[in-house]
Amino acid sequence: MKNSRQIASETLYKIFYDDAYSNIAIDSALSEIKDGKSFITRLVYGVVERKITIDSIISKYCDKPKPKVLILLRMGVYQLYFMDKVPSNAAINESVELANHNGLSYYSKLINAVLHKVDNNRIDLDAIEDMSIKYSVPQHLINMWYKAYGKDNVDAFLPCLNESAPVFAVPNTTLVDTDELLYELNCDGIEGEVYNDLVVITSSFDLKKCRAFQNGLFHIEDLSCYNAVKALGCQENDIVFDICSAPGGKAFTAASLMNNQGKIYAFDIYEHRVKLIKEGAERLGLSSITAEVNNGTEFNSDLPLADKIICDVPCSGFGIIRRKPEIRYKDLDSIKDLPALQYEILHTSSKYLKQGGRLLYSTCTLNKRENEKIVEKFISENSDFSVLKSVTTFPSENGGDGFFYSIIERN
C-alpha cells in the first residue's frame, strides 16, 4: 500500500507536469484511501501554493533538478518550513526513501545533502523583500495588480492568498434562519459563528455526513458572490435568469431571497452540469428553479423576458487563488481570449432583460480587462443601459474572495 508521501508526490507530478487541476487530482487520490487524507491535502496544496518560495530556496543548493527529483525536494522543503509537526529528520529521511522507492536512488545523496543544507541554513521568510518570492505569486501578476489597484491594496491582500479561505454556509431561509442553521450545524458537531446573513464554518466537516446539508438547510457559497446576488435585489414573483449557473449556488441564493416565489431559469451549456443544479435545487426544496441546457452566447427566442439576470461569466479566476492555488501560475497570454467571450455572454444576456430590469455582471477575478473594461464597453455600445453600482472586493482573512460585480439597469 502506498504511503501518504508517495501519494502526494504522484499527485503533485500530475498537477505540475500533466496540467491536472489540484482539486480534481487530490479528490481522485483521496478516493482510494482511508488514512492520511489531511496530511496529503495539506502537503499537496501547500507545495503548489508555495512553489515560487520553495524553488527559490532550492535554487541556492541545486540547479535545475529532474522533474521527479524536484517534486521530492519541494515536498521536503515544504515540510521543513511550513509543517511544524513534521520533525526535520522525518522530512529529510522520508524524502530520501521516496527517491529510493521510485527508482531515483542515484539522486538520493543529492536530495539528502540539499535538504540538510536547507534545514541548517534557514531564512526568515517574513524578511524577504521580493513580494513574488515572499508570497509565491508570479511577478507579472503582481505587476498587473499594482497597475490596476495600487500597491497598498495589493500588498494588503497578498498575505491572504496563502491562507485558508473561510467557508460560508448560506441558510435556506425557506426552512431556517441564520441562528437556527448555526444550531443545526452545532448538533452535527460542526463549529461556526454567525457572520451577517451567513454562517462561517470554523471547523472541519464532511458534507456527505452533515445532516443539515442533506436536509437542505444550506448551501456553500463565498461571501463575495452571495453579496453580489443579494445586491441584484431579486423580489418574490420575479422571473430570474442565471446564465452560467452551475453548480447552482447563485440560483439557490436568489431563490431563497425570493422565498421560493417566482421563476428562476438556471442555465449551463453542459448537461452533466445542469444535473448538478437540479440535484442541488431538489435537495434544498427550491421548486422555483428550472435547470436547462442553454448556450449563453446564443440568443434563445423561446425564453421569456426576465426581471433580473445573473451573468457570472467564465473568467481567469485570479480572485480565488487561495481556493485553487495553481491559478496564480497562469500565463496571461492564456486568458487573452476571455474578454471577447465575456462580452459576448453579457451582450446576449442583456437581450432577455425587461425594460426597468436589472442585470448582475460578475467575475471571481481581479483583472480590469475582464471586469470594468467589459462593462464600460457594453455601456458605450448600448445607450439604453446604465450602471447603478460597481464593486471590487479583495481577498481578506475573514471575508470573501476577490470578486467584481456591476449592477446594470435597462432604462
Comma- or semicolon-separated keywords:
single chain, 411 residues, alpha/beta, 7-stranded mixed sheet, 44% helix, globular
Question: Could you characterize the architecture of this molecule?
Answer:
- The chain has helices spanning 4-17, 22-30, 37-49, 51-58, 67-82, 88-101, 108-120, 131-135, 139-149, 151-157, 178-187, 211-214, 223-232, 249-257, 271-284, 338-350, 372-381, and strands at residues 167-171, 192-195, 198-201, 218-220, 239-242, 263-268, 289-293, 306-312, 353-363, 385-393, 403-410.
- The strands form 2 sheets. It has a 7-stranded mixed β-sheet with strand order 7-6-5-8-9-11-10, with helices on both faces. Strands 2-3-1-4 form a 4-stranded antiparallel β-sheet, sandwiched between helices.
- It is globular and about 70 Å long.
- Helix 16 packs across helix 17 (372-381).
- It has 17 helices and 11 strands.
- With 411 residues, it is of the alpha/beta class.
Helix content: 40-55%
| Straight-line N-to-C gap | 65 Å
Spatial extent as radius of gyration: 23 Å
Largest sheet: 7 strands, mixed
Total beta strand runs: 11
- Per DSSP, the total helix count is 17
- How do the strands of the widest beta sheet line up side by side? 7-6-5-8-9-11-10
Overall mean pLDDT: 96
Query: What shape does the CA trace take?
Result: globular
Give the H and E element order. Answer: HHHHHHHHHHEHEEHEHEHEHEEHEHEE
Q: Which stretches are poorly predicted, pLDDT < 50 over at least 5 residues?
A: none
